[in-house]
Each structure stands twice: as C-alpha cells, then as structure tokens.
Amino acid sequence: MSVVLDDPRTTQAPSPGAGNEVLSFLQPVTRELVHRTAVAEVFVTDGVRTGANTFSVAAQWPRDHALYHPDENGLNDPLLCAETLRQAYFFGAHTYFGVPLGSRFIGQDVSFEITDPAALRVGAVPAAVVLHGTWTEEHDRRGRRAGARLDVTFTVDGRPCGRGHTRGLMVDDRRYGLLRGRPATAEGAVSPRSVPDARTVGPGRVGRLRWKDCVLQRDRFGRRWGLRVDRDHAVLFDHPTDHVPLMVMLEGFRQFGHLTVHEAPRNADAGRAFALAALSLDCAAFGELGEEIVLELDELSPDGCTLLVAARQGEKLLARAGMTWTCVGSRAPRLGLASW
C-alpha cells in the first residue's frame, strides 16, 4: 500500500502487503460522521473502503491537546488510540455500512495494545495515523443487524505500533428508549460546574496538567476512588448525553492506573515513568448521571504494572478494565504547579 498525502508538511511511509490506497490528511471529516460537536475534536481526516468488510481511515493527532497531551517523556497519549478508534467506528458505520445518522450506539467493549511505544513519540509535525479496519456485523435472532465489531491495526507515520477493537449495539430511538426505560433524548441541561475540591486527586498524581481534567476523588476506603463527572468538561462531554460517556469511564480507569502504578511500593521511589501499554474494557451497564460512581482495585500484579479495576454504581457493576503499564523513561521532578 502507498498512502499519498496532499499535505506537503507531512509524510507517510508506505505500508507493505496491501492494496493501493490514497488517503488525505488535509482537513477533518464532517463532525457528525464521528459523533463530535466541536470540529477541534475531530481527528479523522479521510477514509477509503478496501474490501467488502474492510476499510482504512486516516487521522491526524495534534502535537498537543488540552486533555490528551504528551507525557513527560514526549510520547503521545495512548487514549488518542481509543478516541481515534471510536471515531473510526462511527465513520465506518455511517460511510460504508449503511448505518443512518442519528442512530444510537451502545458501547459493549473496547481494547487497544501499544506494541511499539516509541512510535508514539511526538515529532516536529502532527502525527499521520492510519487505521486498517475489519468490520464484522452481528445480528439478532431474526437476522437483523444488531451491532458490529471493528478490529484495527494502527500505524503512526508509517510505523506499525498497535492494534485494537471496539464493539457495540446500534439501535433507533424507540429501541434505545426501551433499553433505557425512558424516552430517548439527546438534549439535557448542563449541570452546575463540578469544581475540583479537597477530595480531588491533583494533576501530578494522575498524569494530568490541569485540575479540571482530574476525575479521581478520594474515598474513605484505601482501594476505592470516586469518579468525578463534570458535565461541563468541553472534551469529555463534547455534547449532551443521558448517561456517563465511555470516554469518561476510560479516563477514570487511566487515571486510577497511573496513580496505582506510580505509587506502588517498588515503583514510587525508583524515579521511573510508566505509560499505559494495553487496556481492555468490558461494559456491563449504563452509568447514570448524578449518582456516585466508585472505582475499585480488584487485582494487582506483584510488579504493580498489571491491574484489574471495576466501576460500580451502588451494587451495580458498570464496567471492568484490565490495564498493563510499561516503563518508558524517567519521571520529571514534581513541581506541584498545575493550571486550573
């Protein structure tokens, strides 16, 4: 495969063993196709169908981002993989597989693995990312399309660096309302700003730069943390919703993992920096807005780098995530300064 760019400021190396594809990185796709309201949050720039159930998607990762910013060792945020995968799923569904705009998507599971962390290093220009995807439809007992799974491989500037998948249900407003037990609605009043308070874990402990991006709150039990849900957050709540979005859950799990791994006894004093290398999340139920969500550590490996975390709302399990973290360098001294 040769990927031809019409943007002279970036280059993309050919990927061997595939057909000839032409992908553009000039401008983002229509925001409705990736379920984003803000144009600035659209990473997908183009796509091309490569077979009956395969397609490729081009995306551009910014050199910096308010939430998904590089880490202290200059590596792109691994959650860019998850967000780009999410956008590629919606783009493929609407563009190539006949799913109407306005359909409701219900996430079931998502995973990604970074096989070459060095490929995520931020360069002198925004990263040119290509996802090669395989689409597998799932049907109900009557043979109707009920959902689909997307499996992808990632390349960054022509360098293979990982793989991932996401799977979800696709329903209309009527069926969505039945699943939710209430009329379907896309609108909702934004709740008062959730200002970080004394319980909020500071940015330096969870790998963030701003207090407003910190989603962990202290709980009275040592292995449990509350999930702070700020419906006024411009990235995590890009548009109104009637439940806690999947990316909010992922951000909570990531911050929980960062805190746990870096403060594990054998890592806390070693001066080493760890990055999220793999994550697998299974969704069990909708997270309701306005009700407390608790994140709890279920399992931790002896080296402190592999963990299993559950999210619960009361007695209800919302999701469970397995994470693996890998050492990527050394930690910068904590200065205790952060933006709001």
From TrEMBL:
Span list, region Disordered: 1-20
Record-linked InterPro entries: AfsA-like, AfsA_hotdog_dom
GO MF annotation terms: transferase activity
Sequence ranges assigned to domain A-factor biosynthesis hotdog in this UniProt record: 33-169, 206-327
Protein name as annotated: Gamma-butyrolactone biosynthesis protein
